UniProtKB/TrEMBL annotation:
Organism: Cladocopium goreaui
One of the protein's GO biological processes: microtubule cytoskeleton organization
Keyword Secreted found: no
Keywords: ATP-binding, Ligase, Nucleotide-binding
This protein's name: Tubulin polyglutamylase TTLL11
Gene Ontology MF term list: ATP binding; tubulin binding; tubulin-glutamic acid ligase activity
InterPro entries membership: TTL/TTLL_fam
Length: 328
């Protein structure tokens, strides 16, 4: 489930950012029947991944209708449909599924995720351009959420630049499709061979994307306008996500350490660069122990299955930062 989150304003040491969760989003489904992962079906990506970029290439992909009744009707069974439709379908099929409880769970996920991300995000506001913009700066995040069989929400990933495209590619498989296009446009300039698909296709506006993303952006701009007017944003179809004010001073200090360290991101290397001086030799000993275990495992594997080159790349990745050059 792709859900959209608006983050606006905020500055370290002064006030937390405004966070708003959009109720509308996109529900994306696999085009192959799910099976419990094993060695034989691990390569069946369309049965394990719901990414639209993958499943749209499948002949089993079911495109959404081009009318409002088809898009927002409860009979919608397309491979990509509005989130609100999917939640209604779940509530109708399973009596113990609570839509508002789902949004509450996602609120907690968004709150905790952005708390972790806040030092990195707001460290960018130290630049002069951002300081002049103040609370007028904003960003839209795409949160990918998955439900388990007990309706528990899990965060898969956060996209800092979610797609706002509203078109879709349809393959030209049959002769009647080509004939239909030819009659529609004799020059057949609607046929396309771009990288969206491996075969000849044509593009059309996706009504489900258009309605979902337009509603999301309109609500975001209304919230930003209210914020600019000094009014606490209250937008229909958006849920405010409270930020932990007690946590904010701690995040402000963490952001100060992050900015002064010069680290580019909170990767394992960046964190090690920041905190290694505080850990003494323990962190280095742990890194060497991991490298030794990896090398021992590689040697044991080569003794069983014949000569094999040790995975030097993997060993290098867990080495201390003072061995950052693999040629040394």
């Amino acid at each position: 489930m792709r859900m959209y989150v608006l983050v606006a304003g905020g500055s370290m040491g002064e006030c937390p950012p405004l966070i708003q969760l959009c109720r509308e989003g996109l529900a994306r489904f696999c085009t192959e029947t799910y099976e419990e992962p094993n060695q034989k079906n691990m390569h069946h990506c369309m049965g394990h991944l719901t990414n639209y970029s993958l499943n749209k290439r499948s002949h089993k992909f079911e495109h959404c209708g081009q009318s409002m009744e088809e898009v927002f009707g409860d009979e919608n069974t397309s491979s990509k449909r509005p989130l609100t439709v999917c939640l209604r379908q779940l509530a109708e099929e399973y009596s113990d599924f609570d839509i508002e409880a789902f949004y509450s769970d996602v609120q907690v996920i968004v709150q905790r995720s952005l708390a972790v991300m806040a030092p990195v995000l707001l460290s960018r506001t130290r630049s002069e351009d951002c300081l002049e913009a103040g609370r007028q700066s904003f960003q839209i995040f795409g949160f990918d959420i998955m439900l388990d069989q007990k309706y528990k929400a899990f965060l898969l990933e956060v996209n800092n630049s979610p797609s706002l495209c509203v078109d879709e590619a349809l393959p030209v498989d049959a002769e009647h499709d080509a004939a239909k296009l030819a009659s529609k446009n004799r020059e057949r300039d609607k046929l396309c061979r771009c990288m969206d698909m491996a075969q000849v296709h044509w593009h059309q506006t996706s009504l489900v994307d258009l309605e979902t993303k337009s509603a999301m952006m309109q609500g975001a701009f209304k919230a930003l306008e209210q914020l600019h007017q000094g009014v606490e944003p209250a937008v229909e179809n958006y849920i405010p996500v409270p930020f932990d004010h007690e946590l904010w001073p701690l995040l402000a200090r963490l952001e100060a350490v992050y900015s002064r360290s010069g680290a580019k991101s909170f990767t394992s290397t960046g964190l090690r660069r920041i905190f290694e001086p505080l850990c003494g030799d323990k962190l280095q000993k742990h890194a060497w122990r991991c490298a030794s275990n990896s090398a021992a495992a590689a040697l044991a594997h080569s003794n069983i299955r014949g000569p094999a080159r040790p995975p030097s790349t993997r060993c290098f990745l867990i080495m201390p930062t003072w061995h950052s050059n693999p040629r040394q």
